[in-house]
Amino acid sequence: MLRTKSILTAVLLAAACLAPARSNGAETTELAAEPLPTSAPAGPAAYQIPPAYGCTGCAGDARFAQFAPDPALRRLGPHPGACEVDWHSGRLWFKAEYLAWATKGADFPSLLTTGDAATPAADAGALDQPDTVTLFGGSKLHDDFRSGGRFTVGLWHCPEQLTGVEATLFGIDGRDIELELNSDDYPVLARPYTDAVGGDEDSLLIAYPGLLAGSTRIDADLELLGGEVMLRQAVMWRTQGRIDILAGYRHGYLNDQLVVRDTSVSLNAGSGYFPGTEIYREDLFRTKNYFHGGQIGLATRLWRGCWSLSLTTKAAYGGTRTRSTISGDTTVVTDPGGIPVFTHNDGGLLGQPTNNDFREFNDESFIGELGVTLERQIGTHTRVGLGYTFFYWDSVVRLAPLIDTNVNPTQLGGGALVGPAVPAFTLSRSDFWAQGLNASFEYQW
Q1: What angle do CA 204, 332, 357 make, to 5 degrees?
Q2: 46-60, 116-130, 201-215, 424-438: which range is least confident on average?
Q3: Which residues contact 371 (CB under 8 A, 6 or more apart)?
Q4: How far is CA 249 from each of CA 166, 293, 314, 395, rounded to the nearest angstrom?
Q5: What angle do CA 331, 334, 340 make, to 5 degrees?
Q6: Other CB atoms within 10 Å distance of the CB of residue 197
Q7: Angle at alpha carbon of residue 429, lines to 425 and 432, rounded to 5°
Q8: What is the DSSP string of 43-64?
Q9: Is the pTM of this model over 0.90?
Q10: DSSP assignment, residue 162?
């Protein structure tokens, strides 16, 4: 009722200012209206509505009473006199944030090992040997802090900042895991696996003294990106704060990738290859998750002097499209008579014809976000802040569960499969989260 009454009051006052008095013998008609306060309430000096608001000449000291239940409210943001500097009530604003977030890790099997050169070549690097040391894997990966950024631009319909639209892009990538080792670092390098035929722990040698010289490069990358376009509508505001409703579209992208590349050179025919033969082997595991959905949210901001505290919650519901890829290949280069001969075989070690595949499917999913930020006004147009964000995605496919270390060795090197068809392609859905600190800078025109 108070808001309706205030709106009617403003309309009647505007009509009174614009309608000329009739003096052609007829009695002058005045619109009955409850007058706005002619002086500012106790406290900070009255805020004058800018000419762009269309109120100049009607009520010089009129405030935003026509937009809010509280007639003492001067604007929908920090108020004059509440801080050392006034806050510019503009239409266009921009916010840049540095993100330091940790992500949910994934358990990886042992993918690269070393051992004692005194151990026989047939057993070197196998996980059941007491001297075997894991160089990569065998633990949780991608659970460390990562750097990223988030950028938001918004436009209010008018300087009263009642209705507006904003667009946000964010991403975290940070430190990709890169490991490159060679036989100069470790004379024994091996790729461990479980023999699905014999049931024993075994390994594929990359380097071993007197048999093979070689190197391995492992690249593991996790990337999270997202964007949203939101309509923002103020639904409650007071001199000490406001509450906005958010509604719009959200997109999410999660890329999880692992590539293992081995290079070996035969030093002895006991390696299974003629001396000088080069062996190049690669395994690739990759999942990409794409989310599209509608989003709603609630944004609350409270002011006290030059400080403000914001709490934002968002919930998006839609669908996630997942694209998962496993591939492996081996290339053998021989040099008989000085003429290189290339032999290519499908299958590396953990990527074999039994699981080399590309699969795509859709599933319903949910993304939620919670953020809290403490900000300090440092100028007429600017403020800085420090906050915390928790991001949650309920249904994604990570690559770690795709890695099957059970291998049928009959198909290694392009051999015909005899026995169980492993490694196998198995999809497993799980949730994903990211959380951490945000340092922000905001500028408003």
Answers
A1: 70
A2: 46-60
A3: 310, 311, 312, 313, 387, 388, 389, 390, 438
A4: 11, 6, 11, 18
A5: 95
A6: 15
A7: 130
A8: SSPPPPPPGGGS-TTT-TT--G
A9: no
A10: S
